[in-house]
Design brief:
alpha/beta; UDP-N-acetylmuramoyl-L-alanine:D-glutamate ligase; 22% strand; metal-binding; Ribokinase; potassium; nucleotide-binding; ATP-binding
Length: 322
Amino acid sequence: MPRVVVVGSFNVDHVWQCDALPRAGETRIGRYLTGPGGKGFNQATACARTGAETVFVCALGQDAGGRLARTLAATDGIDLRPGASEEPTGTAGIHVDAGGRNSIVIGPGANAALTAEFVAQQADAIVGARIVLAQLESPVDSVLEAMRLARAAGIRTILNPAPANAESSRELLAVADILTPNETEFAALLARHTGERIDAAEVAAFEDARLHRLCRTLLPRGTVVVTLGEAGAFVSHREDKCRGDDLPHYRVPAYEVATVDTTGAGDAFNGALATSLATVSDRVFADHVRFAAHYAALSTEHAGAAAAMPRLPVGGGPIGGG
């Protein structure tokens, strides 16, 4: 099977479901759940469950969280490549309201110990992949090393620049073929790298021409996919590299589902996009995005992050673009 290499984080998620997100100084009563998460592991799980041979490069503590990661990776057939750390396995505290909206605080733990040297030791997997996917819950140097190795070998790269307050650099953006921010991350990247300040809450309402211009300013040589939640996604290509699409920019609508929890929706989108690009070579880019949007919508029908990733039938391949 075509291979996707995911470089990123594993967290043990601690989730409180309540009627409304707590305000500063407020105590609310809710329902507690725990399970696997971390943007890297969520995306790796989505890749595996949508049909890609998946390698996951991460760092784990020598504790129950690390043992959980190993067990779950084996269950989904993920080739786990963990660096050892004396720090505890990463954790996340998540509040989810009745509408499925969430707020999250992350304790990096072992995730912060993933080194560029360890990533370089996984070069055999990276140069044998079709897609390398990374996020920013791991040190920038380790992510940059993975993306550099991939680009040097002619492997396509996807950078999900999340979370919004994570460190990033122009050098890192330059080695991303495809950039996949949400509205908040998009606004943060523009402010950090171009000096342009916009209101993240207004991004979905921007005219397409303005949004395309901002995307081209941020990543002149690559494709930007801005995920917009209930408003779908906006795609912006370099004018002479539209990846099979007829237009250099367009919108893809969201799919209507009975949303329970949006916690892992962005990760579902990225994992499904990586699988589709790796496994189906004759699709235009818009079809890959539609597949990812559909899969992300389905993931919100269940509570949790990695555990909520839908499992497609074995041998069935990616779900249809519609």
